[in-house]
């Protein structure tokens, strides 16, 4: 087994529960991005590419941050405290990556401080509520 394979195995549990966690995480992320778009009068049904372009940098950030922080590692939801700490840490990193990507010409929009605070705060609360509930119910 290579070092990279061992690191990935320690950061990613291949159980069916992990797939459900990842699906829930995706729904949380898509949900609050869509809510934000609706708040800014963007209809996802009429402008799906705009929504996808808003979502993409944060989804990329999430994939990197989730593996780096270990939100899919064995025991990531063992306790409510562990689950919330890991997911909020991952979201703060993911939001920073997503905001940095939005500040480039690759994606529409920009990353003013107000947007950074809103996306980081709402994302943190949303992910913490979801993962806290999962850990509590286990």
From TrEMBL:
Keyword list, A-Z: Membrane, Transmembrane, Transmembrane helix
Highest taxon of source: Archaea
Query: What residue intervals traverse the membrane?
Result: 18-35, 55-75, 87-107, 113-137
Name recorded for this polypeptide: DUF3054 domain-containing protein
Q: Please name the source species.
A: Halorussus caseinilyticus
């Amino acid at each position: 087994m290579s070092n990279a394979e061992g690191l990935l195995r320690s950061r990613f549990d291949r159980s069916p529960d992990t797939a459900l966690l990842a699906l829930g995480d995706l729904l949380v992320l898509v949900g609050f991005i869509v809510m934000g778009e609706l708040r800014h009068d963007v209809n996802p049904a009429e402008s799906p590419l705009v929504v996808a372009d808003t979502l993409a940098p944060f989804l990329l950030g999430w994939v990197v941050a989730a593996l780096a922080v270990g939100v899919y590692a064995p025991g990531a939801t063992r306790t409510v405290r562990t689950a919330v700490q890991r997911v909020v840490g991952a979201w703060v990193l993911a939001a920073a990556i997503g905001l940095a990507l939005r500040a480039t010409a690759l994606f529409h929009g920009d990353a003013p401080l107000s947007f950074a605070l809103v996306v980081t705060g709402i994302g943190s609360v949303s992910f913490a509520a979801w993962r806290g509930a999962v850990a509590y119910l286990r």
